[in-house]
Amino acid sequence: MKQSLQLKLGQSLTLTPQLQQAIKLLQLSTLDLQQAIEETLESNPLLEREEEAALEQAADDDGNAPGENAVDFSEPESNTAPDSSDDLPVDTRWEDLIPSSAPTSSGPSGDDYNFDDRDSNPDSLQTQLQWQLNLTRFSDTDHAIALALIDSVDSDGRLTQTPDEIRIALDDPDIELDEVVAVLHRLQHFEPTGVFAQDLRECLLIQLRQMPLDTPYRETAGALVSRYLDQLASGSDIRSLARRLRCDEDTVSGAVALIRSLDPTPGASLNSEDTEYIVPDVFVRKVNGHWRVELNPDIAPKLCINNQYTKLMEKGHSDGDRSFVKDNLQEARWFMKSLQSRNETLLKVGSKIVEHQRQFLEVGEEAMRPLVLSEIASQIGMHESTVSRATTRKYMHTPRGVFELKYFFSSHVANVGGGETSSTAIKALIRKLVQGEDQRKPLSDSKLCTLLEQQGVTVARRTVAKYREQLNIAPSNERKRLI
Fold first, then answer.
1. What is the three-state SS of 371-398?
2. Fewer C-beta neighbours within 10 Å, C or N terminus of the chain?
3. Which of 353, 385, 408 is the last residue of a domain?
């Protein structure tokens, strides 16, 4: 083939830097957006907060004359400390006269003391166990065994290795299995009660043994856990368990209630992660009978252009200075315009969601309507991908709680009368039916299908099973309770 050069005209869609920046800001969450704004404020000198600009303007209007809040740097009348002990009062301390070089905000009374820094790193389960170990008298060998046992405890407080495996891991021929078991029994008295158990049965027995001897139904509960824990999990009848233990049904019922009050994962309470607070992007409230959608004004600071730098373009400075100011000015304007575009898109999407899901705000989850992204996109004149970015990791504060915008979009199921019901509404109906069922005879998936059909919702049994699993609801045979 012969190579040649040809000119060809055509049209293609390209993403300008401004459009790329707008898309990037739109898909950021609230925390990521605040971080991006801070980084832009640090890199672009022409961009500043409005409150900072107002303070600078007020300072310019007042001039350089010192006011009430101005600092006076003139020499004081007397700046000498007493150099004779005769001039000191009787109860005066040396620290009161000579300033200390130590920071003054080391205690709670300091202005810069941050309580979040003090509580930001909670102690883990291993830290708590090692602290209790340091308060317990052990020999050097037993202390090494105890450290190995603590290292083998998982986040729930359960042992991940057997005592024999721990003995082998210590690689000390002088340590015997009985010694490891003896140290283990002492560690099982540590807090929280129930740690260092090898399985659920031992965890429950440890908690029962450490209860006072006069605890009601303590002995019967220990017998149930030791012999019939599997039968308790499968939902055996109270009458059959009472017959096996040769006691009355009331005693067995009290023992079952005592077992349910125990903690199967005692270490989980100490391994809780830091609480992450959600900052809503949109507020929805009812005013005079109408639902109003508003943006959260605190998610992003109000920005403006620094006038002092823009004046440099008008003055006779070098070409490099004017070029620097011009580039940063254009970048600042693009950034502010992208933020404005993001806010407008969020407001449009949030308003349309409230318009479609007004019944959810009035009634609850059972009134949730089916909604897809393309339906909102066609109504606001945007692409479906734009709506997807605007609803990902964005939250709406409603009188019924804080929800992600994605929560209001769900698939639909056809009804008997030809209508449609959202999957969220069906899940709410299933949860309501399960909560009102007879615990002696839980509702099966087939029975749930029948009850939903009576309410006008036709779904298959496997669909009910899928929704039930998504709601973390156990099957009917596992939901049976001992009454």
1. ECHHHHHHHHCCCHHHHHHHHCCCEEEE
2. N
3. 408
